[in-house]
Amino acid sequence: MTIGFIGLGIMGRPMSKNLIKAGYKLAVYDKFAKFDDLVALGAEGASSNKEAASKSDVVITMLPNSPHVKEAILGPGGVIEGIGPGKIVVDMSSIAPAASREVEEALKAKGAAFLDAPVSGGEPKAVDGTLAIMVGGDQKSFDTVKPILEKMGSSVTLVGDIGSGNITKLANQIVVALNIAAVSEAFVLAAKAGVDPVKVFDAIKGGLAGSTVMNAKIPMILDGNFKPGFRVELHIKDLQNALDTAHKLGVPVPLTAAVMETLQALKVDGMVASDHSAIIRYYEKLAQIEVRK
Amino acid sequence: MTIGFIGLGIMGRPMSKNLIKAGYKLAVYDKFAKFDDLVALGAEGASSNKEAASKSDVVITMLPNSPHVKEAILGPGGVIEGIGPGKIVVDMSSIAPAASREVEEALKAKGAAFLDAPVSGGEPKAVDGTLAIMVGGDQKSFDTVKPILEKMGSSVTLVGDIGSGNITKLANQIVVALNIAAVSEAFVLAAKAGVDPVKVFDAIKGGLAGSTVMNAKIPMILDGNFKPGFRVELHIKDLQNALDTAHKLGVPVPLTAAVMETLQALKVDGMVASDHSAIIRYYEKLAQIEVRK
């Protein structure tokens, strides 16, 4: 079985390396990035999305957002021109669920299957092959590609039909953003009241207020360390998809909209490349205090 | 050593029982509730706050909010009339930090020490003696009462000077309320998009979106079970104290203010006695869908 891998950025590159390590034959392509290193590891280089697809049984895409996925799959020289019955395209990008459904329609007309399979975990887990992968699509295609996905992730869950993977990812990103805002409001209040944030962390992390966000981000915040991790600009993209999707579905999400505005404020401050835990910087600025050790 | 215990409600009653079980001599009093059961267990009944205090070395109060604490300690026939040098008053209620400081001033003038020591964990942990207790005050008084507090809690942390216990509790309650709102917006969106909320829970709980709130509340929400737990009306009280404190200190907390409004909407709907996870009912109503198994 040959796997086409399109999109060799911060995430796609280590993910494709894990597939090569697992013994899969790869046909790789990226419109902008070089991939000599992957060819040196045994992958075949392709000269277009179409060529990567035509050489493969399963095609994986890992791209920034909906327009990039639609262009790479449906655009001129795209995956759709190299695809046919029996082939499966797996989009592991985080995009709008409506875009996933649009791509599926077009591929179905050519006899190919499509799964949306966005990931959670960021670069470190892409490198380790321990991503959480949330899949939308049909059971048969899922069963076929599951062994491949398991080489990139430690948790691979079929959550529903096409688009469900990205719906689940948006739900994940809403919770993460709001949980960061939650610890931000709480710890800035405590710090301004003169209470040692290290002691507040110790006192509350084991109770109902505990969260993976608190455990992961408060130690970084206490060090003033906002190196990504997961960049503000990517969370802006995800929340924009969340807001668009929510509004189309008729689901008011006022707190998601509010935390989006704090991310926009960070963008104005030139912090798009900071870790999303920099949401606390917004509150620190408002309250004129820093939450530090 | 005799311990005065004032306030024998849902929380204070099991807490005082744990002290009796541990072998302490208690003098108990409650302005409204009967306490025959505690007397039957060996406690001495007092006829006023003053009498409970005059018979004791350490006085614990466990009352609804700031006005009740101020009345019981500083009011006519209050603790302050039965107190003197060397005695320690420990208020375990969740109240405004400014009220704790006011009470401390008055008790200090009489030579007595004061600690604010609010708890987290609710009735089940009060019964089990596994509360998280966050203490503000001086190290010496803390060291004296710590063995007593350890009979009621599994975690007893001195977080700072007087008022710091309640600041920490407010930080805790901000995080809890916002984490409930976070899973509410996320799961209502997923449900309205037609994705099985059970699968969303399975797919995201192990990642960065994971939280104690998600693990504790989503299974109840999926069952449509909003039995408290922790009542909406109590979270309203805590967030009012959080907002008042934040505004006095100069800390804007816009998301805390927003989630307070969802609790107010539940109050309008007659749900003050529901568990605070009923915050999701606000969103379910807006989106005209229920997040259920």
Q: How would you characterize this protein structure?
A:
The structure is a homodimer of 293-residue chains. Chain A is an alpha/beta fold and 293 residues long. The first copy, chain A, folds into two domains: 2-161, Rossmann fold; 167-287, N-(1-d-carboxylethyl)-l-norvaline Dehydrogenase, domain 2, CATH 1.10.1040.10. Helix content of chain A is 51%, strand content 14%. The first copy, chain A, has 13 helices and nine strands. Chain A has helices at 12-21, 36-40, 49-54, 66-74, 97-108, 122-128, 139-149, 164-192, 197-204, 212-222, 232-249, 254-268, 279-287; strands spanning 2-6, 25-29, 44-45, 58-61, 88-91, 113-116, 119-120, 131-136, 153-160. In chain A, the strands form two sheets. In chain A, strands 3-2-1-4-5-6 form a six-stranded parallel β-sheet, with helices on both faces. Chain A has a three-stranded mixed β-sheet with strand order 7-8-9. The longest helix of chain A is centred in the middle third of the chain and has 29 residues, at 164-192. The N and C termini of chain A lie far apart (53 Å). The mean pLDDT of chain A is 97. Chains A and B meet through strand 9, helix 8, helix 9, helix 10 and helix 11 of A and strand 9, helix 8, helix 9, helix 10 and helix 11 of B.
